[in-house]
Amino acid sequence: xxxxxxxxxxxxxxxxxxxxxxxxxxxxxxxxxxxxxxxxxxxxxxxxxxxxxxxxxxxxxxxxxxxxxxxxxxxxxxxxxxxxxxxxxxxxxxxxxxxxxxxxxxxxxxxxxxxxxxxxxxxxxxxxxxxxxxxxxxxxxxxxxxxxxxxxxxxxxxxxxxxxxxxxxxxxxxxxxxxxxxxxxxxxxxxxxxxxxxxxxxxxxxxxxxxxxxxxxxxxxxxxxxxxxxxxxxxxxxxxxxxxxxxxxxxxxxxxxxxxxxxxxxxxxxxxxxxxxxxxxxxxxxxxxxxxxxxxxxxxxxxxxxxxxxxxxxxxxxxxxxxxx
Length: 325
Fold this sequence. Notes:
Elements: E1 16-20, H1 25-30, H2 32-41, E2 46-51, H3 56-62, E3 67-70, E4 91-94, H4 100-107, E5 113-115, H5 136-146, E6 171-174, H6 186-198, E7 203-206, H7 212-222, E8 229-230, H8 236-244, E9 248-252, H9 255-262, E10 267-270, H10 276-279, E11 287-290, H11 305-308, H12 312-321
Parallel strand pairs: 1-2, 1-4, 2-3, 4-5, 6-7, 6-9, 7-8, 9-10, 10-11
Helix pairs in contact: 2-5, 6-7, 6-12
C-alpha cells in the first residue's frame, strides 16, 4: 500500500501513529523510552496513545504524545475496541502485549504498517521474537529498533513539576499495589515509619484512588498526623511534585516506583513475585531493589513468600545506603 493523500490523513493533514498501551501508570512510564523513540523518528506524525483516560496528564508530561485516546479493560486485558475515527493509522504500534488479541485489535483498523512482536497465532506479522524474561523497558525499545526506530531504554526522565511539593524532603511510603501478592505487610510499613520518625525524618503515606482505607490504617498504626496522609489518589500534578521533592520513595513494584525513577528520586522498591530484572529501576546508587526468591504469581491473592522475606531492617538499611544528593 502506498502513501495516503493529505485529504486521507488525520487532523491538519498530518500522518498518524496509534500506540496501544492500555495499562497502568507504571506501564506507561516504562514505555516512555519507546514513545520518545517514535517521536524522534517521526517528528511530523501525530502520535496518539490508546491508554486509560486518567493517564492523560502523564502522557502529556512525556513530551512525546500529542493526544490520548481513552482505552482500557479490566485486569490488564486488551480492550474490545478502540474509538478511532477518520482514516486508518499510518502506523500502529503494539506496546500492550505479544498475543493475537492486541494484534487483531490494531489490524482491524487497517494501518499501513504495524509494529508488533511475532506470534504463531498471527503469522502474518513478521516481527521480532518475544523474550519473556526481558526487562520491560528493553523489550519495547528492541521491538522498535527492529523496525528502524532508535529508542534508548535510559530515556526515562520526566520534567520537574511546576508546583511545589506538599511535603518536601519526606520519605514517601506507598503500601498499595495492583494485587495482594505485591503488597508488603502493613505492620512492616508502620514499623519503618516509626523508626524513621524517631530519627527526625518526616514520613508521608500515599495511596491510589481505591486505597483510602489502606492508607488510613497505615497512618493510624504509624501515628501520622493528617497533614502527612495522602490517600484516595492524588491528582497527578500533586503526586508528581510530592515524589520529585521527596527524600526517598519506599513501595512495592508499582507505579509510584516508576514515577520516582522518572524524577531521579531515590527509591527502595520491594519485589516479590516478579524479579527486578524484569521491572526494576535502572542501575544507579540512588535505587535499591530488594528481592529474595523465585518468581511467582503477580496477581495472587496473598502476599508472595519472597516479599515476606524482606524485613524492616532490610528497608532501613537500604535507605541508609542511598548516597546523599
